Amino acid sequence: MLALALEFLVVLLQVAWAVLAAALRWLVRPKEKSVSGQVCVITGAGGELGRLFAREFARRRATLVLWDINSTSNEETAEMVREIYRELDTQTEGSGSEEGSAFQPQVYTYVCDVGKRESVYTTAERVRREVGEVDLLINNAGVVSGHHLLECPDELIERTMVVNCHAHFWTTKAFLPKMLEMNHGHIVTVASSLGLFSTAGVEDYCASKFGAIGFHESLSHEIKASEKDGIKMTLVCPYLVDTGMFRGCRIRKEIEPFLPPLRPEFCVKQAMRAILTDQPMVCTPRIVYMVNFMKSILPFEAIVCMYRFLGADKCMYPFLAQRKEAMNNNEAKNGI
């Protein structure tokens, strides 16, 4: 009994230290690690967030492996990355420094539908064969159906779940074994605040992001249990990002100036800081931490009252109405 009490005391001290260390990270910025020369896979690289992640990793001389279902947008991202590499080479030559001259980073593009596991596994094998083993996996690809539940075709619900959640299983199964063997790697899950707390009208999207977060947290525990301290995990949960995915979403107009949609550049900058300092989780803005905490301790009806005050209970309805109108207009144009 005495041994159990002593062990419990040690656990309390470890918890206190963990809380203190987390608080210190907010006050003292940890040193960022180098990813120069490391192979970084980014899914959904043709989208706005994926493109920004690619630019940030390129500036740090990582070798980029870009996955997207759209070859055109993916190649556009690749060309931006190549331009960054050229600028870095020019700067290095101009300064007369030999830093980075031994390694010339490259960018590779692959058309991959992460919603199809065969496509993921086949593309992953090509990456290992043509590029090498992967050091960083950025699970960024995501979709939204934009329909109320009872109006949403089953196929779109399935697509949302597969791309936003199931794909994380497949990409991780493709690249994690070598990370475990080498005890080195970093897996990033780009989720959403809607995976921590939900709202009306986007049931499939919320469910998919809740699933992605559950997968990420369970995998984090599994890696900890395996004592592979060289493998890092980072969960990214931003508030509404102004990429157009949820165009039209509105909270209460009096509150909106204090909680506007996030600029994509700011969102990715915060995420990169978390990734490069091995931060386990980052919520942007920081008020998301508080909202998630309150959701965990308050009764559901209290949450409903808060949602109604903020205008968050039906914030997605204007977005859904716009998507429905756009779909109807397209059908009219096509004579459907």
TrEMBL record:
It comes from Pygocentrus nattereri. It is found in: Endoplasmic reticulum membrane; Microsome membrane. This is NADP-retinol dehydrogenase. Keywords: Endoplasmic reticulum, Membrane, Microsome, NADP, Oxidoreductase, Signal, Signal-anchor, Transmembrane, Transmembrane helix. Pfam families: adh_short. GO terms for molecular function: all-trans-retinol dehydrogenase (NADP+) activity. Residues 1-18 form the signal peptide. It comes from the Eukaryota. Its main location: endoplasmic reticulum. Pathway: Cofactor metabolism; retinol metabolism.
